[in-house]
Amino acid sequence: MQTGHENMEELKLKGGITGEPTVTTEKISFGSNEKEIEGALAKVSDVLGALNLGKKDALRVNLLCEESIGMVKALAGEFSAVIWVEKYDKDCAIQLRLSTEMDLGKRVDFINVSTDKKNAASSGFMKKIADIVLTGIMNSGNIATLNQEFDAGSVAYGAMGSYMYAGAMANPMAPYGAMWSLGSYRDRLDQLEDDAAVGQAWDELEKSIVASIAKDVIVGVKDKTVGMTIEYGLI
Q: Choosing a second label site near 62 at 20 to 30 A (CA), which of 112, 158, 193, 228?
């Protein structure tokens, strides 16, 4: 699928990081076929050299990039994506932008071919991020809430539209139609009554490498274009 990467890259998605990046890596473009995904994974460590990170930071940022690329593998259908990393004074931001033609019909077909007829993309934290992305695309222009199902019950883990910065809310031309963040999800769990389902949700976050080492994960969706920023605090 041919998509203008320049348009995707123009979409701004920033959380707690302030200022401008001091270094920006080369951008890695890839599509939905396995060869391109594997090629993107192979390039990650090479482009990160420009950031001049310490050993531990380099390993963690490399992992976050690999997890970001791996996340898009859970998307059914064709997509065009680009990933890069920005270095700030005390932080790094892994930036992923993609455009996909996924729609509700294709999503239902994708679930129906699974052996248990359930949404296999909801297993694991990064696969839930993929589910948030897909639901946001299919509900473009609407606020979509996803329920995370546990044996003990259900927890709302995706409230698209609940995470908007004051500047974005005041700006009718804000670049994303809906947003989600790990920070707002954690806040939501803090507000819920402590029961077995909430306990399982916290347990899943604690077991996730990405959720453990990232300061925040922010997802924005508008029409068929998706942005994800993983913010990481340098050691």
A: 158
Beta bridge partners of 25: none
| Token code pair at residue 115 | 């052996």
Q: How far apart are CA 144 and CA 142, in angstroms?
A: 6
Which helix (H) or strand (E) segment holds residue 191: the answer is helix 182-191
Cα–Cα distance for residue pair 142/83, rounded to 1 Å: 27
Distance CA 29, CA 24 (A): 15
From CA 147, how far away is CA 37, in angstroms rounded?
29
pTM of the model: 0.77
- φ/ψ of residue 48, rounded to 5: -70, -15
- Candidates 114, 26, 118, 129; CA nearest to 73 is 129
Under DSSP, is residue 3 helix (H, G, I), strand (E, B) or coil? coil
* Cα–Cα distance for residue pair 229/174, rounded to 1 Å: 16
Q: Where are the domains of the chain?
A: 5-233
